[in-house]
Amino acid sequence: MFDGFYIDTKEGNNALSYEERKSKKLYVPKLIDWTIEDAEIWNKIVFEDFSFENDELVSCKGLKNYLRIPYMDKEIILVDNHNTVLYFWYEARKNGLISNDATLIHIDEHSDLWKNDNVLSPSDSRDLEKVFDFTNYKCNVWNYILPAEKEWLIWKTYQIRSEFSLLEHKELDIDWDIILNVDLDFWNPNLDFIDYNLKKEITLKYAKKAKIITVSTSPFFIDQELALKVFRDLFK
After folding, report:
1. Residue 221's Cα: distance from chain center in Å?
2. Exposure winner among 62, 87, 168, 177, fewest CB in 10 A?
3. Where do runs of H (alpha helix) occur along 44-179?
4. Residue 3 within any structural domain of the chain
């Protein structure tokens, strides 16, 4: 399904500022099995919206390919737009890696808990083609978690978005069917007041326990070469 395609309708991430943008399409890369060193940024626009700071249109290039990377006894899925990870959570359930009522460890600058009026039904959630369409056309980078919670794939979401929450998770002992979901924008320079090594420590703590790891390079929120540098340092 992830063979490389364009979203050219007013849906998913492409619906954001759709009327104001000249280009009306966004690229979704192909998924390949590869290694951590082979992640690279390409020339296709994967996200486009207006800056919060100066209201100028920002056109973001993303990954050449999405990557499925072996890591310890599991795998990392690397994507650019964060909503794409929803598909891989359901794939993991279908493959028996997790069950319903899983635990989501969400390490991110943002909550990604915006309201989503679209609903993924329990029956549709068992059909990966329907999950794929829902992920790309009914979700965006802000609102993909609530559908998984409403459908009971996710029972509990732990938000790690501050130094306080990182320190809290140094003491917590969570083991139940963990999905580790990392947005590399948590390493954006505007969050450098949070200790880098503390971020890395908690990320790797849950990477060891997780059944699956999903990582987003988040083109709108962090320089992509910096994101890949952090990614390689975290999971090398």
Report:
1. 12
2. 168
3. 85-94, 128-137, 145-150, 163-171
4. no
Cα gap 67→29, rounded to integer Å: 10
Range of the domain at 171: 66-235
Tell me whether residue 46 is in a domain: no
Residue written as tokens 């987003």? 216
d(CA 104, CA 86): 11
Quick check: 41 and 29 in contact, CB under 8 A? no
Comparing CA positions, the residue from 48, 52, 44, 60 lying closest to residue 4 is 44
pTM of model > 0.90: yes
* Amino acid at position 15, single letter: A
CA 58 from centroid of its chain's CA atoms:
20
Q: In the prediction, which pLDDT does 54 show?
A: 86
Domain CATH for 210: 3.40.800.10
Question: What is the domain count for the chain?
Answer: 1
Question: At 129, is the secondary structure helix, strand, or coil?
Answer: helix
State pLDDT tens for residues 95-112: 999 999 999 999 999 999
- CA-CA distance, 31 to 40, in Å (whole number)? 13
- Structural domain contains residue 184: yes
CB-count burial class (<10 Å; 0-12, 13-18, 19+) for 193: exposed
Q: How far apart are CA 230 and CA 196, in angstroms?
A: 10
Query: What's the rounded Cα separation, in Å, for the pair 194 and 77?
Result: 25
